[in-house]
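Hey, can you fold this one?
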Amino acid sequence: MPITTRIIAAVTLAVALSLACNVVPEVMAADRYARSASPAWKVGRLDPALSQACRRLDFNQRTPLNLYLGFIGEEGRATTGIAQRGWNLRDPLGLSEPELTYHFRNDYTSRCAVYVAGPPRGAR
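Sure. Predicted structure:
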């Protein structure tokens, strides 16, 4: 058996074993920034103008849920995507401010809500 065929077979076997052992969900969870028991709406201030821009596809994440925050409490369960200017934020109209973090709930839908928060803890 040629070496390339053996390598392909080994990679295929490794992927199959990873799937069988539930390794993939752990890898996918690496994009989770944090979890919180607080209601999702406490992540920041709801911004009606940015929410409207999000619904018009003028203010969105470049990659939805590329980095996200999961709210797992009894009240206000949701997942919000996180974006900042210069990182994962699509802002063709220049609506964002440099130090703020934007949390998107239902991005790319007619129910999009954008919450504005201060800079991340590590950047303060």
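Confidence is low (pLDDT under 50) at residues 4-30. Let me know if you want another pass with a different chain boundary.
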